[in-house]
Every structure is written in structure tokens, then in C-alpha cells.
Design a protein that fits this description.
- 41% of the residues are buried.
- This protein has two domains: 21-58 and 202-300, Arc Repressor Mutant, subunit A (Orthogonal Bundle); 64-195, Sandwich (Jelly Rolls), CATH 2.60.120.
- The strands form three sheets. The protein has a four-stranded antiparallel sheet with strand order 1-8-3-6. The chain has a four-stranded antiparallel sheet with strand order 2-7-4-5.
- Helices cover 34% and strands 19% of the residues.
- The termini are far apart.
- It has ten helices and twelve strands.
- It has helices at residues 61-64, 70-73, 79-87, 143-148, 169-178, 182-205, 209-220, 237-244, 248-260, 276-289; strands at 90-94, 99-101, 109-115, 118-123, 129-135, 139-141, 155-158, 162-168, 222-224, 227-233, 264-266, 270-273.
- With 308 residues, the protein is α+β, with helices and mostly antiparallel strands.
- β4 and β5 form a beta hairpin.
């Protein structure tokens, strides 16, 4: 799995350790007006973004970076050792929108996501919820809190029907002591998660809301059998708003603008990235041309020639 991807605004959250950050401003980037692009980033045709800005689309963070992979936890173990670990786990299937674990609950189980998608979110005292990321099969959920034996910092909610394997914490502790190499693998996973979180969170925290939205769409999209273009299913505009750190109305208007630019198409809880290369160009162009403290959704920050 991210994995993930922490989108917690300007707060230096170490998502790998799933640390809470009371100072995180969840309203960072929240704009109540209609999103507006400066003229230099607008366009009506395929050539609206410079070819010089072409880059490879961002890697799918939920699958490749921001979460520990269960396969890595088992790396180097013998078939007998893997069987021993698996024998201590039970597998279950849960429907969409089920709560796997709640924020503040005891970390009494290790949860391995075998199939499907899960989103991790955190509730603030103000009542706001912030989505840290969407995670896919192969992810170990709540690993850091489990190791530290601390209450869960995040709530885990299923997006699709999911298959999970669950191991009680007491059995997890037994495995770390009795299975040679397992504890070393867990230690490496936690270190990897922390380093990758720092590397990814820094640049993303300074991104404009448009860039964050484009990056999130790219990282969540998957190719399916029905569509050759990358597609996102099962996420609402409210989900995207909590991940980007903006209002739901801002997301609706921003998606409409992306659709007008022929970057995406929308249909019944499905968002299809019609032109992945152009979307990557848009992200690169916005990052290169806009100062860190300017949000392109606020036209007043730009000179007159950049306005309509």
C-alpha cells in the first residue's frame, strides 16, 4: 500500500509512524469560491500544457510506497515459517463502508488487507475528518500503533468489499520472538515507511490545491477490464475533499474544470483520467510556474494578464 500519501497540508506529519499532529490545519487550501485557473494554465485543446513539461505520471503511492507490504514482512522466511505465521491469522470478508478499526480503540490486532481498498481517516476535536490516504491489497494497517501498543490513531473504513486477515497482538508478539527474521523485517518496514513519508510529504505539503487534486487522482486511478484508461471508483467528492483539504463544492467545481479541459470524465461514482500524460504535464507545469505561497484558485494573487 498511501500508501498512502499524507495530505495533511503544511504539517510535517510522519505518516509512516501514523503520528497524530494537533497543529495540522485541515482548512489549509480550503477555498469557498469557485476554483479558477490562471490563463497560462488554462486551455481548451490538447496543446494547453507545454510538451516541455512532460513527465512520467506519478507512481501509485498507495500501492508502491506509502504503506508496508505484507510480502516484505515475509521476505526471506521459509515456507514452514510463513505457514506458522499464517496459521495464527483468520480471514474475513467485509462489505463496503465497514469500519475495520476506530480511532482511539486498542491496537489489539494486526490487520493485513488482502484485497479491496481501505481509507484511513482521522477525526479532529472540531468534528472535521481528514483522509490520510487510500490503501490497497498487501497493506498492513496500523502497524506502528500495534508495535507501540498504543491506541489507534486513525480510523480504517472499507471502500469496496474487502478481504482481510487478522492476527491478535499476542500472536504477533510471539511471531516476532519465535520466527527468526520476522522482527527484522518488521523493523525495516517501519523504517522504510517513515523515510518514504518524509520524502513525499515535504513537497506535497507545499503544493497548490490544484496540484494536490491532480496528484491524488493520478495515484488512486487504476486500469480495469472495462476501461483502458485509469479509473477511480467508489470515492465520493466528500472523500476527495477531505484528502485534498478543501471544501466539497471546490472539488465539484475543480473536477468540472478538469473535465472541461478533457483531462477527465465523470460518470456515477467513476472518474476516468482520459489523458494521463496531459494531467501529468498540468501538475508539472503548475509546480514549476507557481510560487509556493500562491494558490491558483485565488486569481487576485496573479497579475492582470493572468486574469480573465
Amino acid at each position: 500500500m498511501r500508501q498512502p500519501v499524507s495530505w495533511a497540508g503544511r504539517c510535517p506529519v510522519t505518516a509512516g509512524a501514523f503520528q497524530s499532529c494537533p497543529s495540522a490545519d485541515l482548512r489549509f487550501g480550503r477555498i469557498q469560491g469557485r476554483p479558477r485557473l490562471p490563463r497560462r494554465l488554462r486551455g481548451r485543446g490538447p496543446t494547453s500544457v507545454s510538451r516541455a513539461a512532460r513527465v512520467k505520471p506519478p507512481v501509485a503511492s498507495a500501492e508502491d510506497g506509502l504503506s508496508p507490504k505484507w510480502s516484505l514482512a515475509l521476505a526471506g522466511l521459509s515456507a514452514a515459517q510463513r505457514k506458522d505465521i499464517r496459521s495464527r491469522m483468520r480471514t474475513m470478508t467485509l462489505p463496503p463502508r465497514s469500519i475495520l478499526s476506530r480511532q482511539g480503540a486498542p491496537s489489539d490486532t494486526m490487520v493485513v488487507l488482502e484485497d479491496g481498498r481501505v481509507r484511513l481517516l482521522q477525526a479532529q476535536p472540531s468534528g472535521e475528518q481528514f483522509t490520510f490516504g487510500v490503501f490497497v491489497g498487501g497493506t498492513i494497517l496500523g502497524l506502528a500503533a500495534l508495535v507501540l501498543d498504543q491506541p489507534r490513531i486513525l480510523t480504517a473504513e472499507t471502500i469496496d468489499q474487502v478481504v482481510v486477515s487478522v492476527m491478535p497482538r499476542r500472536d504477533f508478539v510471539v511471531c516476532t520472538r519465535s520466527v527468526p527474521g520476522f522482527l527484522d523485517n518488521i523493523t525495516r518496514l517501519l523504517a522504510l515507511l517513515s523515510v518514504e513519508s518524509i520524502e513525499r510529504t515535504g513537497p506535497q505539503a507545499l503544493d497548490d490545491a490544484w496540484v494536490r487534486l491532480g496528484s491524488i487522482l493520478t495515484s488512486l486511478a487504476r486500469n480495469d477490464s472495462r476501461n483502458s484508461c485509469p479509473t477511480i471508483t467508489g470515492l465520493t467528492q466528500e472523500d476527495l475533499a477531505s484528502m485534498v483539504g478543501v471544501s466539497r463544492s471546490w472539488i465539484g467545481a475543480a473536477l468540472a474544470e478538469f473535465e472541461r479541459m478533457s483531462l477527465i470524465s465523470k460518470r456515477r461514482s467513476r472518474i476516468t483520467i482520459e489523458q494521463p500524460v496531459r494531467l501529468a504535464e498540468f501538475i508539472a507545469s503548475a509546480r514549476r510556474r507557481l510560487p509556493d505561497d500562491i494558490d491558483c484558485a485565488k486569481p487576485r494573487h496573479f497579475k492582470n494578464e493572468d486574469r480573465e
